Amino acid sequence: MANYRRLWTILLVVLGFTFAILGYFGREVYRVAPPIPAQVVTESGTLLTTKDGILDGQTAWQSVGGMQLGSIWGHGAYQAPDWTADWLHRELEAWLELAAQDEFGTAFHNLEDEQQALLQHRLKREYRFNSYDAEADVLVVSNRRAAAMADTAAYYDKLFSDDPALRGTRQSFAMKENTLPSSQRRADMNNFFFWTAWAAATERPGSEATYTNNWPHEPLIDNKPTAENIIWSIVSVVLLIAGVGGLIWAWAFLRKEEEHEPAAPARDPLTSFKLTPSQKSLGKYVFLVVALFTFQVLMGGLTAHYTVEGQHFYGFELSKWLPYTLVRTWHLQSALFWIATGFLAAGLFLAPMINGGKDPKFQKLGVDVLFWALVAVVAGSFIGNYLAIAQIMPANLNFWLGHQGYEYVDLGRLWQIGKFVGIVLWLVLMLRGIVPALRQPGDKHLLALLTASCAAIGLFYGAGFFYGERTHISVMEYWRWWIVHLWVEGFFEVFATTALAFIFCSMGLVSKKMATTASLASASLFMLGGIPGTFHHLYFSGTTTPIMAVGATFSALEVVPLVVLGYEAWENWRLKHRAPWMENVKWPLTFFVAVAFWNMLGAGVLGFMINPPIALYYIQGLNTTPTHAHAALFGVYGFLALGFALLVLRYIRPNLVFNESLMKTAFWWLNGGLVLMLFTSVLPVGIIQFVASASEGLWYARSESFMQQGLLQTLRWVRTFGDIVFIIGALAVSWQVVIGLWPRKAEAEGVTELAK
Description:
The chain is about 65% helix and about 5% strand. It has helices spanning about 1-30, 50-65, 85-105, 115-130, 145-160, 165-170, 185-200, 225-255, 275-280, 285-310, 325-355, 365-390, 400, 415-440, 445-460, 475-505, 510-530, 545-560, 565-575, 585-610, 615-620, 625-650, 660-695, 700, 705, 710-740, 745-750; strands at about 40, 45-50, 70, 75, 130-135, 140, 405, 410. Strand 7 (about 405) and strand 8 (about 410) form a beta hairpin. The radius of gyration is 27 Å and the shape is globular. The relative contact order is 0.11. Helix 11 packs parallel to helix 22, helix 16 packs antiparallel against helix 17 and helix 17 (about 510-530) runs antiparallel to helix 18. Strands 2-1-6-5 form a four-stranded mixed β-sheet. A two-stranded antiparallel ribbon has the order 3-4. With about 750 residues, it is mostly helical.
């Protein structure tokens, strides 16, 4: 017990320390967010826009899909431009052309080198100078800059309408025709784009860096990495090496001799409990997992195809009904839904077991209500997404019922509330089974950790309610990453580790002491880097150097525990040899082994590739990011959710025998397809973009002329092979679940029971 006390103390200290950092520097995000001026006026006094106009533009951008159509400050989709970088570059070029005509009577490219250098010097001086008057809350721009803004706005007005002159560009960007029909809302959106570009070009008071830490790379105004960027990048690499070395030394010298493994029982202990009504009703959850998984995979294939044909699917103009922005929204949202459903199903299966093999009163009713609530949220949010992007949804209802515009939390606020209520209901159902068990005598430390992880999953999704439709985007990003990073990558990780330990312990395959010790130690390691590591997503979102320092330091530590996951994979894999009956759960175990592999490669290697500030400075918003996202989100949480679903299926259908051919196809084709997708297409495109971003600027790496060149088009076509392999694997595992839930009578009579 003393050992547990030390581990609990370490975990609580880690949580207290790291959340204090997250909260303290979160206040910094609020304090130093780039100002949104009450008025933007020209030096001659002409009013250009207001704070309300800029925020109206933010809501207009949200209504067309927001981060699912291009990106802002590097966060969002990758086919259309980053609107901040693109607007800024277009405005700078327009200013140079206007200046050349005004001062030399010819186009800028016709000027002598000395004349061009003179104008570029004046350009940098004007754009980096902060002309915002904080006391009056007014931003003053020159008449020439106002004219450059008007030129840029005219281009965007055509681009987001159905102007035939830019139809080809819309196809290159995978934008549907007449993306934003209202001319007034297009004008408002232009104001918002201008403001994000202004913050990216203007030096913060008292600093030589812009509000976005000199991001994006833009040579025309000398936007380049700051000294702090380079310093903290080096620190992060050093800490990574030190952390890995320290972990290896601790593993070698501090790890005590492992106790003898308990003798494996002759019969699976999980089958000693009679299935309860609530457990029997979990089949529909497992079906929902693979139904949404199949839908997500098909939407992903369609999204990828739009990157080569823009508005068409093999010649058919499908974007009239299912534009890129919509299918990418559905692709991401369905992933979060089915992965979460897999985790919920695993928890609901464990709850009666924890409660002594019986359901608390009305448990089945609660499980059924939760399922249909999930279905309602999925259907409602998907319909709302469609109506918003089709611009059918009234503007005043979009945020609540349609599309919030923020990646991974795209669903309307009403559906977000519904999802939160559903997760809280799941927490209540879990606690009804856990609390009575906690009151029983004996070692309850592992169960206490499982309870804490359930509570964290149930409550921390609520962080998404700390911002609203018109919240400053820097503040919104802070809270959004509480969900995307902290909720998903943090607490789900702890729940998964603890739930697996609890399952293996309940099976009698590992001792409770070993399972508890490993779970508590893993939780501390994950949380130490994971909680403050949230800030590595915010380097260039209108924050200051302290955010960069904390994010770079702790995100390096996130990678450290991932280096030992190969050992964890081996430990999980060898469990199947502990007892003959473990052969019955071979395939769920195999999926758990894949989780460890992709955690190391996808979350570790590919994650750290984009973590240091100097790396992210050049590659934020490029295809290097989805390389990490696919490998980590599906490779880790996707395989984990599928493993949970298969495990639950195996126990609620005791006579089921997995089809070896189907499962081999599912496992190897899913892994093979993911490898092909990433390493023959997405990553090579990202690396080529990285070279362009470092040499020319982010605007160029995301531009139409660059992205439509032959090599990149070919590489995006090559992705089709990986997608097809992956889809076949997805269909195989989905079909296994379907026939497992509804076996043919002859098959059911011909198999042995799990207990034999």
